[in-house]
Design goal:
By secondary structure, the chain is mainly β. The chain has two domains: about 10-60, no CATH class; about 60-135, OB fold (Dihydrolipoamide Acetyltransferase, E2P), CATH 2.40.50. It is about 5% helix and about 40% strand. The protein contains one helix and eight strands. The strands form two sheets. Strands 6-5-4-7-8 form a five-stranded antiparallel sheet, covered by helices on one side. Strands 2-1-3 form a three-stranded antiparallel sheet.
Amino acid sequence: MGDYNKPLPNVNGDSKEFWIGCKAHELRFQKCKACGHVRWPASIFCPLCFGRETEWIISEGKGRVYSFAVYHIAYHPGFESELPYVVAIVELEEGPHILTNIIGCQPDEVTCEMRVEVIWEDIIEEFSLPKFRPCG
């Protein structure tokens, strides 16, 4: 971990448990106790059944690329050295979709439906970011 010159996550009451999990290298998501729906972002009630009782589960960190874009322009100076880079929506096996980066391959190798797994980037003492790489 060195100097980090990119935006940091905005932690609030709903997302705090998620970011605590990330620091421990765990993807944590809320699961509705009434209907079993696993959701992200966290909220005070289930968007499917409106239940308010939840538990936090730990994802296996495996999924598939649902959609993606390759950035060729840095919209923040901190990303200039990484161009081009991939921003993707990953659909996890447990159901939630998460916005992330795909690393560990060339941007032109990324495809929708590509199987991916989580890896961790420890950016500063308080934060680790979940990123994804191709499986296998």
